[in-house]
User: What shape does this take?
Amino acid sequence: MAEVIWGLATSHVPSIGAAMDRGKTDDPNWKALFDGYAPARAWLAEHQPDVAIVVYNDHANGIDLDFVPTFGLGTAERYEVADEGFGRRPVPDVIGHPELSLHLVESLIDEEFDLTVFQELAVDHGFTVPLSVWTPDPGDAWPCPVIPLLVNVIQYPQPTAARCYALGQALGRAIRSYPEDITVGVLGTGGMSHQLAGARAGFINPDFDHMWMETIETDPGQLAAMSREELIRKAGSEGIELIMWLVMRGAMDDRVTKVHSDYFVPASNTAAGIALFDNRNGQPA
Ligand code: DHB
Ligand code: FE
Assistant: This one.
């Protein structure tokens, strides 16, 4: 039986990756953000999973805007890093885990989540920046195979928060029904509050973010009850990316142990948050 050992929620702001790629993490504008990652990175380095699943959204880099699936899952052996217009990031391509992917596709479709299946997919900052937050120096390869689980957060109507939480719960069941004894880490990416365009461009809501950070641990069902309109009003039009944290949280047990969290404003135009949860209930840290 496979087991979810941890969940990591993190923002995926592209300039966080650029700061790392250009050696600017000690610059005064960035140091506090990266210092805030250190305890999570140290714990994660001691708790390497066999496979990771990254719940993320593409930003019209790997997938054309004419074909945006509500939910999708990658089944490839390998995922190329997308060139988003400035050359590809100097990070390794992603090795997939087709066997677990196929099990997840089958289990989730049996649970009536009719996912789009990607046999080929280039992954953008929504995926690679969270991997860098987790593993700053991957060398030639990321620490384990990684599976992309895509959520549409960029075109109206996005899936509801409740549907994302339910998808996460089905994902947890699917992982636990995998016959091999492997450990799995789940990343929920995006957020926190931000709005990149329109009359409210630059909008950030720290009160909302702090409420979200606390409640995702203790009462995710309360967050799942929010409508997309309420989420956009309170977190900004791109802050709705936070629904992907609910997929991660749904895959975990009702009770989790927070290992570390941090909040930094602003990273580019975004409130950047990180939250790491241990799902190995009752085991020593
Ligand atoms: C920014 C944030 C995002 O979530 C994103 O996908 C792109 C840009 C930003 O704040 O610059
Ligand atoms: Fe984004």
